[in-house]
Specification:
- One of its GO terms (molecular function) is cystathionine gamma-lyase activity.
- This is cystathionine gamma-lyase.
- 35% of the residues lie in helices and 12% in strands.
- By secondary structure, it is an alpha/beta fold.
- It has 2 domains: 244 residues, Type I PLP-dependent aspartate aminotransferase-like (Major domain) (Aspartate Aminotransferase, domain 2, 3-Layer(aba) Sandwich); 81 residues, Alpha-Beta Complex (Aspartate Aminotransferase, domain 1).
């Protein structure tokens, strides 16, 4: 479903885009949970609006409309997980097609590419995308997808999205330039405004923000790409439940407030650690560091995620404040170890 072009801030869009009470007979101000698996037809083979909940669901469509508005795209499609969204992108490709991927990707995507895509006939080259020249050097005649994260998970490496978009369009005009924007969220960065063809989110993380939903999303402005992905979303069937969509519709309303507080909290901790005699390096968000001009060039300045060696975790562990988990970006303080 195309997004509604609202001339409002992201804070207002998160509450109202796709949520118009007039679309419901009840005029409910919160989109209801539509649990029905099938919908009444006006006659044999005469479908009006919805037919089967895998193909389209009112609660899911509300969420997709809202997500598209936040990411400044025409379209958004939701999936049962972030990896399900990535897998749908892989289904756009044919045997022998070539993917250029950042060599510091989220582990699940890395595993999907190495252990599933390559054995099934796709070519994948992993490159250091922090230098756009490395992507340019890796482009082949059969390159169909360029996939990056910025910042990357978990090492927070930055990609010059605009420069990569320009070189992909010049040297591989048929390729899809995809950006995983999970780390920044639409609040801090909109890759489509920098030239990306496709944006991916693990909704599980900041967008939902409450650690109670697993979901993914793809966004695009391209009509042709949306039509192909929409077909695959329905054909493969890895769609989220209406209840999960309801939860994200709820969680997304506080996205702007949560992201601003993440930024403020992270900056306070970063400034404290920068002055600590045992700290060797700091990443992102502390203005005395030379990396900051490059980071703020691509996105609004933000600190939500800090890295430190294990000895700095002991106090938090003793006091039971930071939980050890393998996922993050909820409202709790988390301690996450990188898997080697």
């Amino acid at each position: 479903m195309p997004s509604i072009d609202l001339p409002f801030s992201i804070e207002t869009q998160a509450i109202h885009a796709g949520q118009d009470p007039k679309q419901w007979n009840s005029r409910a101000v919160i989109p209801p949970i539509s649990l029905s698996t099938t919908f009444q037809q006006t006659g044999p083979a005469e479908i009006s609006g919805y037919d089967y909940s895998r193909s389209g669901n009112p609660t899911r469509n509300c969420l997709e409309t809202c997500l598209a508005a936040l990411e400044k795209t025409k379209y958004a499609l939701c999936y049962a997980s972030g990896l399900a969204a990535v897998d749908n992108v892989l289904h756009l490709l044919q045997n022998g097609d070539h993917i250029i991927a950042f060599n510091d990707l989220y582990g699940g995507v890395n595993r999907l590419l190495r252990n599933c895509a390559i054995p099934h006939g796709l070519e994948v080259d992993f490159v250091d995308a922090t230098d756009p020249a490395n992507i340019a050097d890796a482009i082949k005649p059969n390159t169909k997808v360029v996939w990056v994260e910025s910042p990357s998970n978990p090492m927070m490496k930055l990609v010059d999205i605009a420069s990569v978009a320009a070189l992909v369009k010049k040297n591989a005009p048929d390729a899809i330039f995809a950006v995983d924007n999970t780390f920044m969220s639409p609040y801090f960065q909109n890759p489509v405004t920098l030239g990306a063809d496709l944006i991916m989110h693990s909704i599980t993380k900041y967008i939902n923000g409450h650690s109670d939903v697993v979901m993914g999303c793809l966004m695009t402005n391209r009509d042709d790409l949306h039509q192909r992905l929409r077909f695959l979303q329905n054909s493969i069937g890895a769609v989220p439940s209406p209840f999960d969509c309801f939860l994200v519709n709820r969680g997304i309303k506080t996205l702007a407030v949560r992201m601003q507080r993440h930024h403020e909290n992270g900056l306070k901790v970063a400034n404290f650690l920068e002055r600590h005699p045992q700290v060797e390096k700091m990443f992102l968000g502390v203005t005395s560091r030379p990396s900051i001009p490059s980071s703020t060039r691509y996105c609004n300045e933000t600190v939500q995620w800090l890295q430190w060696n294990d000895q700095f975790l002991h106090k938090g562990r003793r006091e039971g404040i930071a939980s050890s988990t393998i996922s993050f970006k909820g409202v709790h303080a988390r301690r996450k170890s990188r898997r080697r």
